[in-house]
Design brief:
The protein is α+β, with helices and mostly antiparallel strands. The chain has 4 helices and 5 strands; from the N terminus they run E-H-H-H-H-E-E-E-E.
Length: 156
């Protein structure tokens, strides 16, 4: 995968794996997400609570973990011609994430087919994993997106 905005539907073939950069989750990430989302829950606001329940650091909301996973995928450049998210399925948080954890993503194309209603687009399904610095899988989900196809040639 080229990782540029020139990635089109035809570039997504079953079995293609996209690896992301690594990113450390910061205290600012946590505070800003909680503020924007209005998630004023004790587990996100009280550093002592995370320690008391044995998390080893300030817990990060699952929604933030998901948003970071998607952001890392976008940073690969592979979503430059995405025109819509059709669905997210099987979303599972499998390991706690805390401030200071460093995460990276791995996305595999599980299906790619031409759209039956819009032939200038394709439907791409992917299985996603987000891993922490210890290679523990912290999040899994599947997605289905609509991706623009290359311009179809018209007959002469």
């Amino acid at each position: 995968m080229t990782g540029t905005h020139e990635t089109f539907f035809e570039d997504f073939v079953e079995g293609l794996v996209i690896e992301t950069l690594r990113r450390t989750i910061t205290e600012s990430d946590l505070v800003n997400f909680v503020q924007v989302a209005g998630l004023f829950e004790e587990i996100w606001l009280d550093a002592g609570k995370s320690a008391r329940i044995g998390l080893g650091g300030r817990a990060v909301p699952g929604g933030l973990t998901f948003a970071i996973s998607e952001g890392l995928l976008v940073l690969t450049g592979s979503m430059g011609n995405a025109v819509g998210m059709l669905g997210i399925d099987e979303l599972r948080w499998t390991h706690p994430v805390c401030v200071g954890d460093t995460v990276s993503g791995r996305s595999e194309v599980t299906e790619a087919r031409r759209s039956s209603s819009k032939p200038d687009r394709g439907v791409v399904s992917m299985a996603h994993q987000l891993l922490n610095q210890d290679d523990d899988v912290v999040l899994t989900y599947s997605s289905t997106r609509l991706i623009a196809a290359r311009a179809m040639e018209t007959p002469a």
